[in-house]
Amino acid sequence: MRLPRTAHTSRPWRIHEIAPDFKIEDVWRIPTPGGPDDFPHLVDQMANGAEAHRSAAVSRFLFDVRWKLGAVLGWDSPDASLGTRVPTLWDRLPADLREVPRGPDLKGVPIPFLSVYQTHDEWVAEMANRTVHGLMHVGWVPDTKAPGGYRGQMTVLVKPNGVFGTLYMAGIKPFRYLGIYQQMLLALGREWRATAARRNTAGTTGPTGR
């Protein structure tokens, strides 16, 4: 379920001070109800289950088309990535965030999606190619549908690379809304429900960042 941008801007996330020049592209509700200490489990699931999120036919097809097109046109070449075309967001972090766990990188995705920082309720990972410098912000927020409970929330923030990047983001918007994000979030929810017993057994220990 897509949420208004205020669902992100109204919360005191650290990302506001670190990336004020990035534009909010989307905010999504993640169907992962849990308790106050379950956020590390969500981060671990998202970081290590990226390939599983592509399991639906529509989402898999759109991903495959995008990566093949990017390979032909050179959109995802190493000279357009983090540390080459654009500096990493890590360079902007204040001293206190450099001391927290950096968090896990996303696995199973063609473009490197590197973690920037992870706190008790906030995780940020970034990518860059020839079209855009993008951030995935995942937060752990109170769930209004379950008093005392929490759930995940994902925000996509972008800085398009010039006119081409702006046109590219506008061109892929219908595909994101019609297929990719919905399928990914549904897959996250299914896996979350399937692993409920394991989370309960783990208690408050949870996975940790790197």
Annotation, overall tally of beta strands: 5
Oligomer: single chain
Q: Please work out how many helical segments DSSP would assign.
A: 7
Helical amount among residues, as a percent range?
Answer: 25-40%
- Which ranges are low-confidence, i.e. pLDDT below 50, for 5 or more consecutive residues? 204-210
Order of helices and strands: HHEHHHEEEEHH
Structural class: alpha+beta
- Overall shape: it is globular
Q: Tell me the strand order in the biggest sheet.
A: 1-5-4-3-2
Task: Please tell me the overall pLDDT.
Answer: 80
The proportion of strand residues reads: 15-25%
- Nearest-angstrom radius of gyration? 17 Å
Largest sheet: 5 strands, antiparallel
Question: N-to-C terminal Cα separation, in Å?
Answer: 30 Å
Structure, described:
The chain has helices at residues 6-9, 15-18, 39-48, 57-73, 95-98, 162-194, 196-202; strands at residues 23-34, 114-118, 122-128, 132-142, 150-160. The longest helix has 33 residues, at 162-194. The model is unreliable at 204-210 (pLDDT under 50). It is α+β, with helices and mostly antiparallel strands and 210 residues long. A five-stranded antiparallel β-sheet has the order 1-5-4-3-2. The protein is globular and about 45 Å long. The chain is built from seven helices and five strands. Helix 4 packs antiparallel against helix 6 (162-194). Strand 3 and strand 4 form a beta hairpin.
